Fold:
Amino acid sequence: MKQKSRKFVYKTSVSWIEERKGILCSSGKPTIEVSAPAAFKGQEGMWTPEELFVASVNTCIKLTFIHYAQRDKLEFLSYESEAEGTLESVEGRFMFSELKVRPKIKLSSSNQIEKAKELIQLSEKNCLITNSIKSKVEVIPEISAQS
Amino acid sequence: MKQKSRKFVYKTSVSWIEERKGILCSSGKPTIEVSAPAAFKGQEGMWTPEELFVASVNTCIKLTFIHYAQRDKLEFLSYESEAEGTLESVEGRFMFSELKVRPKIKLSSSNQIEKAKELIQLSEKNCLITNSIKSKVEVIPEISAQS
Structure:
């Protein structure tokens, strides 16, 4: 069988500044100040590895949904999503045991509510970040329509 | 046996703006404009889920190293780390198959080079983000000393 051979490489760099603080860079993008969470001796007001991890899942499910919505001509008016990840000790090692993602999707027409449910489930299944992680990911959508 | 029961929860939210563009938020942190990679119809110049994922690993290994360095009184002058993640189809599904992380660590004294190697290996093993992902993570350190 012929295998797909497309590969994509994504790069970032981080430079330590002082204490837990660093600067995160990726070519052509704005830099981001990063630290540890305050509970782990970090500075306040900066992004942390834990939030970047949760953000990567949250944003990837959003983009996967947009991809399917375009493909299937599903019109939506808004998409807002809260995600939370739980870090805990599993068999003696700290890891993200689970993530809950709660997209609120507003459609222009109630005729497409079932279609939107189907596509958000498909997005949960085919998101390339959820494919890459061990954490249990649960997507809990709230879909409404303007008319 | 008594189990550790500490749990930590990390939250982010994302709001869709237009096309592939969104705004990523986490309470008390600067917002980040996000999109898809240009190869997947995204806008240029914005962070993507793929880079946030690679960044979470890169920054978490850095913080784990800093934690061990403080614990063991290892003095370092600088820590800069490039990381790259490879996205490809594995058994028919796109995922990050591997990440390579290349920390360059400069010490004040060459006496501590072996100690630094030991601690970066420990950081690779105990990083809570690498514990949470399926991708193979390889840490390739470059350790030097001022004297």
